[in-house]
């Protein structure tokens, strides 16, 4: 059986001429790309551009709003930085964002991070970048009509486990003296014992040392609480001295967790390479936003280490973190505290469930609504004054970590 021919007969001269013209056009385009490599990656399908950045100081944090020429606005949260400094830094960074396409999130993250070599990696800069990064993801999700976790590869779970709940609680300690006595250790042990009794044998107990329990005392304490089966012992030492973590890991049999103050993949890598952490605790608002938190989760995955995100932000930064938690494979549990006052400002589109989880965010972008009227009212409270959290003093008057 002979199939019908669908070939089109083109004169040889015409064909060769067309090939030559196409080759010339390709060569010209290649030369143009070589001359302007940045232009080759521009999103020519979109005319959306950043037009304004507005920082709103509200108590101990800053809410950042980024506007675009398409009428789409995104929100982010900056916490852990003196708010007047964060607001000024965010406003200054707008110089590098003005007129840019907000959907080029990774490009803009790198621009901000590498803009000043003497500030790169610093807490002030990264916390501020985090708020901007959240807002860019918020805009992009709204532009495409999907929640952010869809842009991160889609959900890997149907709900997100959180604490504190009736069956999952964390207790902790303030600064302890270098010369800790048995009665001081016993007080910490009793707090763990009480927590275990409260949640029962099928519940979850965690302990936060806040980097404030001296290593020798922590080793004694950890041995005493082994029978209570903790999920993890958080912040066992002050960040930055990997040798202390190695010494603690050798002598403590409870899983160790840390990472809230170890920003970016470069801050987390030494802990994983030296095998001193069992759980990584990135904070979306501290480590550089959604973009960097996702990279940390992937890095930890390579070491078979789950994440248990740290989070003391309002529903805005918390929801940004939920999007990452929804989209990565090795996830353990997420810190999620309610704040009645700030809850009047940010309305999230997720709900708490009776079994100790939250539902996946619903809507587009970050899936939150910001009430700017309520924001202005809370921000204008004349009775609130920002105060530094430290220093903390030992019994003898010495300054201690916390």
Automatic annotation (TrEMBL):
Its EC number is 4.2.1.6. Keywords: Lyase. InterPro entries: DgoD-like, Enolase-like_C_sf, Enolase-like_N, Enolase_C-like, Mandel_Rmase/mucon_lact_enz_CS, Mandelate_racemase_C, Mandelate_racemase_N_dom, TAT_signal. Residues 182-255 form the Mandelate racemase/muconate lactonizing enzyme C-terminal domain. It is an enzyme of class 4 (lyase). PANTHER family: D-GALACTONATE DEHYDRATASE, D-GALACTONATE DEHYDRATASE-RELATED. Pfam families: MR_MLE_C, MR_MLE_N. This is D-galactonate dehydratase. GO terms for molecular function: galactonate dehydratase activity. One of its GO terms (biological process) is amino acid catabolic process.
């Amino acid at each position: 059986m002979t199939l019908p021919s669908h070939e089109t007969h083109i004169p040889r001269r015409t064909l060769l001429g067309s090939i030559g013209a196409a080759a010339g056009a390709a060569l010209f385009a290649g030369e143009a790309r070589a001359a302007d490599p940045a232009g080759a990656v521009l999103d020519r399908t979109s005319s959306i551009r950043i037009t304004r950045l507005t920082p709103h100081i509200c108590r101990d944090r800053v809410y950042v709003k980024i506007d675009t020429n398409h009428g789409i606005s995104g929100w982010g949260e900056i916490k852990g930085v003196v708010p007047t400094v964060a607001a000024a830094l965010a406003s200054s960074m707008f110089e590098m964002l003005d007129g840019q396409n907000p959907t080029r999130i990774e490009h803009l993250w790198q621009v901000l991070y590498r803009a000043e070599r003497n500030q790169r990696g610093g807490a002030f800069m990264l916390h501020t970048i985090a708020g901007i990064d959240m807002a860019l993801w918020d805009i992009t999700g709204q532009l495409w009509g999907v929640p952010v976790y869809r842009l991160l590869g889609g959900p890997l779970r149907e709900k997100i486990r959180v604490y504190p709940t009736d069956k999952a609680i964390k207790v902790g300690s303030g600064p302890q003296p270098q010369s800790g006595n048995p009665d001081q250790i016993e007080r910490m042990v009793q707090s763990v014992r009480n927590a275990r009794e409260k949640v029962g044998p099928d519940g979850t107990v965690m302990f936060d040392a806040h980097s404030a329990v001296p290593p020798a005392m922590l080793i004694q304490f950890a041995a005493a609480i082994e029978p209570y089966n903790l999920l993890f012992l958080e912040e066992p030492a002050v960040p930055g001295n990997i040798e202390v973590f190695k010494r603690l890991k050798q002598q403590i049999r409870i899983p160790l967790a840390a990472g809230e103050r170890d920003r970016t993949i470069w801050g987390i890598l030494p802990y994983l390479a030296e095998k001193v952490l069992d759980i990584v605790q990135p904070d979306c608002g501290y480590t550089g936003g959604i973009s960097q938190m996702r990279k940390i989760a992937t890095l930890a995955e390579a070491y078979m280490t789950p994440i248990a995100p740290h989070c003391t932000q309002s529903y805005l930064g918390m929801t940004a973190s939920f999007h990452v938690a929804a989209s990565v494979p090795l996830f353990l549990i997420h810190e999620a505290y309610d704040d009645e006052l700030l809850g009047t400002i940010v309305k999230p589109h997720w709900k708490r469930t009776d079994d100790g989880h939250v539902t996946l965010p619903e809507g587009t972008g970050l899936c939150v609504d910001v009430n700017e009227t309520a924001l202005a009212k809370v921000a204008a409270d004349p009775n609130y004054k920002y105060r530094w959290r430290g220093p903390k003093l030992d019994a003898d008057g010495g300054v201690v970590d916390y």
